[in-house]
Amino acid sequence: MEVGEIRRRYLEFFRERGHVVIPSASLVPENDPTTLFTGSGMQPLVPYFLGQPHPEGKRITNSQKCFRAEDMDDVGDNRHTTFFEMLGNWSFGDYFKSEQLPWIFEFLTDKEDGAGLDPANIYVTVFSGDDETGISRDKESVEIWRKLFSNKGIDAKYVELGSIEAGSERGMQGGRIFAYNVKKNWWSRSGVPAKMPAGEPGGPDSEMFYDFGTPHDPKYGKECHPNCDCGRFVEIGNSVFMEYKKKEDGSFEKLAQRNVDFGGGLERITAAANNDPDMFHIDVFKPIMERLPESLPIRNRRIIADHIRAAIFLIADGARPSNKGAGYVLRRLMRRAMIYEYMTEDVKLDIGLVIGGLIAKYKNVYPELDVETITSVYNEENAKFLATFKNGLKEFDKLVKKGKISGGDVFRLFSTYGLPYESAIEFAKERANIVVDEDEFRREMEKHRELSRTASAGVFKGGLADHSERTTRLHTAHHLLLRALQIVLGSQVKQRGSNITSERLRMDFSWDTKLTDEQKKEVERIVNEKIAEDLPVIHSEMDRGQAEKLGAEHEFGQKYPDRVSVYSVGPKSATPENPQFEKAFSIEFCGGPHVSHTGEVGHFQVMKEEAVSAGIRRIRANVA
Ligand code: SER
Predict the structure, then answer these.
(1) Ligand 1 lined by 259 (C-beta under 6 Å)
(2) CATH number of the domain to which 590 belongs
(3) Residue that is last in its domain, among 231, 255, 281
(4) Please, are residues 558 and 589 in contact by the beta-carbon 8 Å criterion?
(5) Ligand 1, atom 6: closest residue by C-alpha
(6) Residue 510: which domain range?
(7) Checking DSSP bridges between strand 233-246 and strand 616-623, what pairing results, if any?
(8) Is 233 within a domain?
(9) Percent of the chain having pLDDT more than 90?
(10) Is the pLDDT of residue 75 over 70?
């Protein structure tokens, strides 16, 4: 079974059950200050769980490109990848457990229209309840699962494990449906209930695991169980029953609507359909795996394959190697891939062929994958890095001559020159019989991982930062600024990137030269004039074609579904019933949020204007 076929069947299955298929959002979210990357299908949909109506209705499905930087160091086994596609189906206050669980089980097991998995190899988990929040055990899901398995002739025994530790002591006990506590069967963007900020939605979940039947590895605990990490069981799907929201006082209340957030790993489901636990055997990895010689350790081959695939998708969504944020993570990925290639003398990948082969696998679904752009970004970064990397090898050789390499040295070589630590430790032993203090190295590494976790996994600053009052004012200021730039510089000015935090707004736009002081003043004057006029900000939903006809500005890097959300500013007499688009000051494709009248924005000021790259300028601005 190929990835493309499973993706097609999944979307068709849910389309037939009343879902609208929406495009994948960008891997690098433009307007979400809480995170660098899109790491799950639900992330771009948060407002709709909280009650905002989705323009496409209450039943939505897609395959979402996802990237999880925090998994980078786990890549190398047969199942971890940083990039993956998440198959999603969502109910915004529509169907709930009794519809969703039977559907997903049908999809997973149906031979003609689904993944065709043998139900005997599927194990499921449910929420065991939690004293702290007072949210009780999910008995309803247990009953639904029992019936579904019974229809397939399987007598599904229920086993309560509670904590993961209990699982490793007590094991399977002949069970099919297992209950675990908040650590395993509660889902929110920020994890367990205690870690959630006020305002954040979450809920109990029910997960599906595929049993690959590989022997248990006691390194991971005395007994095996579905959540054991030994590799026998791989999670292939997660139905989150998102019906709660955390309150300011730390307790939980029910949301106004009951939602379902299902996410399933496309590559993992494909591997299960092939009954092969090695993710790197599926078709999408072929163009690269088959070009890597078998003399290279399998772990290295997997790292190269994962990192190159992730990098091409990140580049396609606008990321460029740099020293901070998403660009830094991209750089680390690309460098690691190159190192694993160059450390071994006999590998010289024809990167052009590899990139071309990977893109051919995806081009019909993700047309943003452009061979030329991606290859040139790749080659440029590669050329820059080779020099540094060779210096790293020289440093390493010096230490070898001195006869001592500490854990701190290995970490420094890793963090400064990007020299992979596993190889450095291995090489030290092989080439000079030097034993590196690995514990010392790991302590340094742990410090570093903590840092990158907070930088990339998403930091929540007390509440949903993107819906705070200040951020909302900056969103509206952003629309006014774009229009003012077009008035002052010309209508050819287009937005080329944007980022809004509660502290400031940042906009990249197409323009060649430095703005003069007069131009900057004029831009400020126009924005402040529109604020003083206290124009209404109107939200409308319409067909994409109609919005395009109205000349609505696109948000940079976004692809749009057939129904879109649009915000227009002015004229003074505009109302939601009669938005008078032809007289509007600004119209943009946008999910919001925005203030209701421009007067709420406050005084607008340009803080800084600078070049980002050839033909692109960047403005930082603020409101007071
Ligand atoms: N949000 C859930 C997850 O990421 C299910 O879509 O697992």
Answers:
(1) no
(2) 3.30.980.10
(3) 281
(4) yes
(5) 263
(6) 468-623
(7) unpaired
(8) yes
(9) 68
(10) yes
| 419 domain-assigned | no
> Which among 281, 315, 344 is the end of a domain?
281
- Kindly give the distance from the C-alpha atom of residue 222 to the centroid of ligand 1, in angstroms, as a whole number: 29
Whole-angstrom distance, CA of residue 260 vs CA of residue 88 = 10
Residue 611 three-state SS: strand
pLDDT value at residue 449:
62
Please tell me the predicted confidence (pLDDT) of residue 386. 78
Q: Are 524 and 605 in contact (CB under 8 A)?
A: yes
For residue 94, give both structure tokens.
Answer: 């529509």
pLDDT digits (tens, 9 = 90+) for 368-406: 999 999 999 999 998 877 777 777 878 888 898 888 999
Bridge partners of residue 316, in order along the sequence: none
Buried b / exposed e along 560-569 (16+ C-beta atoms within 10 A)? bbebbbbbbb
| Contacts for 46 with CB less than 8 Å, ≥ 6 apart | 189, 201, 464
Phi/psi of residue 62, nearest 5 degrees: -170, 180
In a domain, 425, yes or no: no
Residue 242, domain CATH: 3.30.930.10
Q: What is the mean pLDDT of the chain?
A: 90
Q: What DSSP state is assigned to residue 285?
A: G
Is 104:148 a contact under the CB 8 Å cutoff?
no
**Distance (Å) of CA 26 to CA 40, 44, 479:** 11, 9, 20
Q: Which of 35, 240, 242 to mutate to test the pocket of ligand 1 (most atoms within 8 A of CB)?
A: 240
For residue 209 and ligand 1, the question of a CB distance below 6 A is answered with: no
Q: What is the rounded CA–CA span in Å between residue 99 and residue 547?
A: 35
Element spanning 590, H or E: none
Could you read off the pLDDT of 131-161 as tens digits, one per residue? 999 999 999 999 999 999 999 999 999 999 9
Helix (H, G, I), strand (E, B) or coil at 20: strand
Q: What are 141's two structure tokens?
A: 């899901």
Q: How far, in Å, CA of 97 to CA of 391, rounded?
A: 57
In whole angstroms, what is the distance from residue 590 CA to residue 480 CA?
A: 13
Residue 364 within a domain = no
Q: Which residues contact 447 (CB under 8 A, 6 or more apart)?
A: none
Tell me if 42 CB under 6 Å of ligand 1: yes
Q: Which residues pair with 233 in a beta bridge?
A: 211
Q: Report which of residues 13 and 600 the model is more confident about.
A: 13
> What Cα–Cα distance (Å) separates residue 153 from each residue in 33, 100, 147?
49, 21, 10
Angle at 449 between CA 443 and CA 450, to 5 degrees: 95
Domain count within the chain: 2
| Closest by CA position to 511, among listed 366, 363, 613, 388 | 613
Which residues are CB-contacts of 459 (< 8 A; sequence separation ≥ 6)?
Answer: 34, 35
Give residue 140 CA to ligand 1 midpoint distance, Å: 20
- Reported as a single tens digit per residue, the pLDDT across 532-590 is 999 999 988 888 889 989 999 987 666 777 888 899 999 999 988 899 999 999 999 88
- CB atoms inside a 10 Å sphere around CB 267: 21
Longest CA pairwise span in the chain (Å): 81
520/172 Cα distance (integer angstroms): 68
Identify the residue whose C-alpha is closest to ligand 1 atom 3.
263
Q: What angle do CA 50, 245, 34 make, to 5 degrees?
A: 70
Q: Which amino acid is at 8?
A: R
- Give the CA count within 13 Å in the CB-facing half-sphere of 133: 26
Q: pTM for the full model?
A: 0.71
Q: How far apart are CA 462 and CA 310, in angstroms?
A: 31
Determine whether the shortest distance from the Cβ of 201 to ligand 1 is under 6 A: no
